[in-house]
Design goal:
This protein has 249 residues and is an alpha/beta fold. It has eight helices and seven strands; from the N terminus they run βαβαβαβαβαβαααβ. Helix 1 packs across helix 8, helix 3 (64-78) packs parallel to helix 4 and helix 4 (101-129) packs parallel to helix 5.
């Protein structure tokens, strides 16, 4: 895509699923990609898939110091940060009456707090450059109510609104901020959720009630991320892009 070659990109949660697909797509577009995660063995698999233009920084986005360190290491390695892809996240499906404080903190800290403070660290660099793009992997659950997953939906809705506000604040600095909102995508996180559910209906669900009659693939989300990060989307900011097979239509 136009304007992506040699851009320096940081992808959080890049060791599997949508994050790994983003690393692969962006390196294929000619970007230099630093990605974070907690599992070094899976990080090696991502590097094998993406090639020498990808490198790994161990980080847990629940810790603000790790968010700041990931940005700092990207700047140390490459001298600038052109694109941040906030992808790290977890899925929490629990009725509110069964949700503990630890559950709440785990989901909020990963999906919202981590993304917020990574954006804060990235914005410092981007403001000095007078240019930058932030793409957040939110969720369609942040757009509509999600039965049995109020905390997850609240975290993603919070991310969407934080990004919209920051897009207004930092548009004058030459920075674009957008949200990508997938529906169900075939990832290891989905497989874990199915295994943990113990619900036979959930186990056999294949997205047949979506208008496109299937669930999404990580590469389909990554292609939207690449577009939004590129100069092809140079007048897109403060927007939420649904990648949901028509579910919210």
């Amino acid at each position: 895509m136009r304007g992506l070659h040699d851009k320096v990109v940081l992808v959080t949660g890049g060791t599997s699923g949508i994050g790994r697909a983003c690393v692969r797509r962006l390196t294929a577009e000619g970007c230099v990609v630093v990605f974070t995660g907690r599992d070094e063995s899976r990080a090696r698999e991502t590097i094998e898939a993406a090639g020498e233009r990808a490198s790994f920084v161990a980080a847990d986005v629940r810790r603000v110091a790790d968010c700041e360190a990931a940005v700092a290491e990207t700047l140390r390695l490459h001298g600038r940060l052109d694109v941040l892809v906030n992808n790290a996240g977890v899925w929490l499906e629990k009725p509110v009456l069964d949700t503990s404080e630890a559950d709440y903190d785990w989901c909020m800290d990963t999906c919202l707090k981590g993304a917020f403070f990574t954006m804060k660290a990235a914005l410092r660099a981007m403001i000095s450059q007078k240019a930058g793009v932030i793409v957040n992997i939110a969720s369609d659950s942040g757009v509509h109510g999600e039965p049995g997953a109020a905390v997850y939906a609240a975290a993603k809705a919070g991310l969407i609104m934080a990004a919209r506000s920051l897009a207004i604040d930092h548009g004058p600095d030459g920075i674009r901020i957008v949200n990508v909102c997938p529906a169900v995508v075939e990832t290891p996180m989905l497989h874990r959720a199915v295994a943990d559910s113990g619900d036979p209906d959930y186990t056999g669900w294949d997205g047949a009630d979506y208008p496109l009659r299937r669930i999404g693939q990580p590469e389909e989300v990554a292609s939207v991320v690449a577009f939004l990060a590129s100069d092809e989307a140079s007048f897109v900011s403060g927007a939420d892009w649904l990648v949901d097979g028509g579910y919210c239509a």
